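FORM 7B - TANDEM STRUCTURE REPORT

SECTION 1: FIRST PROTEIN
SEQUENCE AND C-ALPHA CELLS:
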Amino acid sequence: MILKQAWIERDKWNKDYIIPSYDRDRVKAETAKAPVWLHFGAGNIFRAFMAAAMDRLLEKGLSDKGIIVCEDFDKELVHLAYEPYDCLSLLVTLKADGSVEKRVVGSVTEAVVDEERMKELFSLASVQMVSFTITEKGYSGPLMGKIARLCLERYRQGAHPIALVSMDNCAHNGDLLKEAVLKHARELLAEGQADTGFIDYLTDESRVSFPWSMIDKITPRPDEAVKKLLEEDGFEDSQLIITNRGSYTAAFVNAEETEYLIIEDKFPNGRPKLEAAGILFTDRQTVDRVEKMKVGTCLNPLHTALAVFGCLLGYRTIHDEMEDELLRKMVYRLGYKEGMPVVVDPGIIKPEEFLSDVLTKRLPNPFMPDAPQRIATDTSQKLPVRFGQTLKAYAESDGLDINELVVIPLVFAGWIRYLTGVNDKGEVFELSPDPRLEELCAHLSSVRPGEYPADLSVVDPILRDRSIFVVDLFECGLAEKVKAMLKEMLAGCGAVRRTLEKYLCED
C-alpha cells in the first residue's frame, strides 16, 4: 500500500485506514483556480491539525477547495515529504486508550518553495487567509521580510482584504506577527520600495487583520514504533526522513487525539467554515482567557512540575511519571486544588473539562513519549508565565490563603534542588539548557545534596527574583516554606521522594 494509490485503489487498502471519498482531482482544480487558504510552515503540526481540519471540511462537502502550503525555512520538507506523495499524508492518531486511527489526508493540493509562485498566489483576490506555524523564532527571521514583500504585491494588485493568522503556540501571536510584518514594511517604505498607503493598508483591520489564536496539540516527530506498526499493515511509505536542517518528517505524521484551536473571528475577506471541523471562533478577550487558562493553570504548570521531578527521579517520559502514584497525586492537586480556584472561565471551553482531558488523556498517553528533560528546558523563563499569575492572584485575594499552597512551593523547591545537577539517587545528571543556568547554579555552588545544610540563605536572591516568580516570595510569605522543603530534599539519597510523600500524603 502506497499513498499515491489511496484514492485510486480504495478497496485494496486495509480497512483500518480511513480514505475520504471526495473528488480530490476536482478539489485540486478548484483550488488552483481560486485558492482561499495559504499556509506557511510545512511541518508536522500543519499536517496533523490544519490540513486534517480542512480534510474533514472537504469530506462534509462544506468546501470545494483545499490548502496550498508554502515552505521557506526548510525546502527539503517539500522535496522529500510532499512531492513524492502528491502532497498526501497519513495521519496516525494515537489515543490514550491504546487505539490508533489512521486517516489519509488529501486537503493539501500544492506545496510551494518558489517566491515567484508565492507572489502570484498572494496577489489573488480569492485568498481569504494566510496562516503560519513557523515557531516563535520564525517571527524574528528572514521569512517576515518575505511576507512583507508579498503583502506589498497584494497591495499593488488591488489591496485585497486578507487575514494573516499566526497559529503558533505563543501568547498574543497575532500581535507578534503584525509587529514583525510592519517592521519590514516600514523598511520597504524607508527604502523607497513602498508608499505610505501600504502602511495604511496593513494597519487597517478592515483590510488586513492579524487575529489572535490559541493552539494546543502534541505532534512529536514521526515515531519508530508507529513506523513498525504501519509496516505490519503493509504500508510502504513508512521511511523516516531527517532533512539537512534537522527537520524530522515522513509521509506519515503521528499525533495525540486531543486538540484545540481557538481563533479570534476577524476575517475581512471571509474564511472557510472551519467551525464545522472543530475549530472555535470567538473574540480576542476569550482567546486570551483560554491561553491563560492553558498556560497558567490547566496544562503548562503540570508539565513543569513533572519535568522538574521527572529529572530528579530518573524518569524518561511523562507517561511513565503518570504511572507513579505520588507524581500523579501531585499534578491532580496542582490542577484541581491549587490552580482551579484562580482560573478565569473563558466560557468557550470549560476549565474542568480541559483539565480532565490533560490528566486522563494527554499526560498518561503511552504513545506520546515526551521527555521531562525536554520540558525542563528554559524553566527560568517558564516559571513566571506558568505560576506567576497564580501566585499574584493568591497574594491579592481576600478569600484565598497563599500559605495553603503545597504543590507550587514543592515545585519551586524541586527546581532549585534540580539546579544542583544531582538526582535523587545521588547521581550527577545533565541540566537542560536555560539562558540563566550559569547565574542560577552559581548561587548553589556551596550546596551539596546529602549534607543537609543548616543555612540556605544562598538561595534568597533566587526567591526574591520577580523575573522568575513575578512576586517576591519573601514578601508573599512562601519563601520560608520553599526553603524548608528544599532543605528536606537535600538530605541525602531518596530525600526528594520522601519530601514529596510527606507533603502530598498529609491530605
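SECTION 2: SECOND PROTEIN
SEQUENCE AND C-ALPHA CELLS:
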Amino acid sequence: MPSTAAFDYEWLFDHSPLCALVHDPHHGTVIAGNRAAARALGYPQAELAGMPLNKLMGESGLYRSERAIERMILVVEKGIETAQWRLIRRSGEQFPIETTAIPLHDSDGRLLMVVQFRDISEEFEAQRREERYRRLLADSFGGTMIADVHGRVRYVAPSVTRILGYSERDLIGSDFRKLIHSDDRVRVHRQIGMLVASGDTGLHDVEYRVLHADGEYRYLEAGLRNRASHELVGGLLLSFCDVTARVVAEQDARQRRDEMQALLRFRTMAELGSAIAHELNQPVAAIRNYAAGCLKVIPEDDAGAKVSWAIRKIEQEAERAARIMRSIRNFTTEGRTERRMQPLRDIFADVEALTSVRAQEHGAIIKFPTLPKSLKAWCDKTLTEQVMVNLILNALHAIQGEDVEDRTIEVSAHALDTEFVEIVVRDRGRGMTPDQLDALFQARRSTRESFGLGLILSRSIVTNHGGQIWARSAIHEGTAMFFTLRRRPEKHFVTPPVAIQGHG
C-alpha cells in the first residue's frame, strides 16, 4: 500500500463522515466530492467531478462566476468561512445546509476551496415549527400565554395586551395566578395542581375572573393544557377570551327572570291577600258587632268591668285587623296609601304590641325607644307598621340558632335632617355575606317565601313614600336594617305604580 501524503489525503477525504466538496472558484466547478457528499446529494460520486457548482446551488447560488473572485478573497482573508445555504439534490429537492469553506492550494499552487457541509433539515424544520407555533399563538383571536408549572409567565401573545391591558414586560416572569380573583384562585390552583400531578395533557375548560390593568375584574373563559413535556411549550398552555359581556348579560337575564317570577308570586299573593281580606271582612265585622252587643248587656259590677275591658280589647284588635287588611289590599292592588303626619311613637307602640308575642316565642327581647311626640313622619301608618314588622321578623329569624348568644333586637328612630327621619332595626345575629347583602331586596328564589316577598313589599312601600331602604351586615356581627321617611309632605310627589316600584 503506498504511503504518500497525497494518498493519505485522498483516502481521508473520501472516507470522512462529513460531506465535502473540492471547488475551483475560478471556473465554478466541483473538482471532487466525497462519499458522504454523494449520498447526501443523490449523485454517483464520479458524476460530481466537473459539475458546475451552480447546478447544486441554483441560480441564486453563492458561487456564481461574477462573484467567485470576491468570495475567494473573503475566504482567503478569513481563513475559514461558515454560512447557511441550500443545496439541490439530484431529485430536485432543496435542503438547508450549514457550510464551512477552507482555502487550499494544490501541488501546482492553484487556489482551491474545500466546502464541508451538513444537512440541517431537522433543525431548520424545528425552527420553522416553533416560528409557526408562535405566529399561530400571536395571531390567535383569544389571549394565549405559556407559563411554567408554578404559574410563572414565559410567553405572552400580543392579544393578551388587548384583552387584559398588560404589556409583555408586565407579565413575563410574573405569577399569573396572583391576578386571579381571590374567590376563584383556590379552584384554579387546585385544577393546575391536579393536571401537573397526573400528567394529564387533555384540554380542560375553566372560567374565572382576572384583574384587568384598569383595576376592574374581567370574566375569562379559558382552555388549560398541560404541555410540560412538549418541546415547544415546556409548561402550561393557557388560551382564553374575555366573556365578561356574556356573563353580565346572563346575570342580568337571570335577575330579570327571577324578578318576573317574584312579580308573578307577588301579584298572586296580592290577589290572594285581597280575596282573603274580602272574605275576612265579614267575620271581622261580625266579631266587632258581637263585641258591641256584649258590651250592652254586661252588668256594671266588678266582674262585668273586667269582662267589658276584655271585650273592648277584642273590639280594638278586630278594628286593627280590618284596617291592616284594607291598607294592604289598597296598596297591593291599586298602589293607594293614606298618608298623613304620624307620630312615630304611636307607630312604635302598635308595632311593639304586634310583635311582642312573636318575640316571646323566639326567646328574644325587642327594645323600643321612648320617642318624643314631636318626631313625626309623613306616611301611611298601617303600611309603615307593616314595614317595621317585616324587618323585625327578619331580625327574629337571624337570631335563631344555638350559635347566637345575644337575642336582643333594638329599634330606634331619629331625625336625619329637616327632610327625613331614619328608622333602624338592629340585631346581633348571624349576619350576611356581601353577596347576600347585595341581593337582600332583590327578587329571588327563597326557601322562605315570606322573607323574600316581605322585603320586596317593604321596599315597595318605603320607595312609594319617597324614602330609601338599605342594610349593613357582617358575618357573626349582626345586621342593621335602615329606612327613611319624609318629615313633611312632598309637593308634586307622584306615587309610582306598585308593580314597577316593587320589582324594578
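SECTION 3: OBSERVATIONS ON SECOND PROTEIN
The domain at 126-242 is CATH 3.30.450.20 (Beta-Lactamase).
The chain has three domains: 5-119, 126-242, 337-504.

SECTION 4: SIGNATURE
Preparer initials: ____
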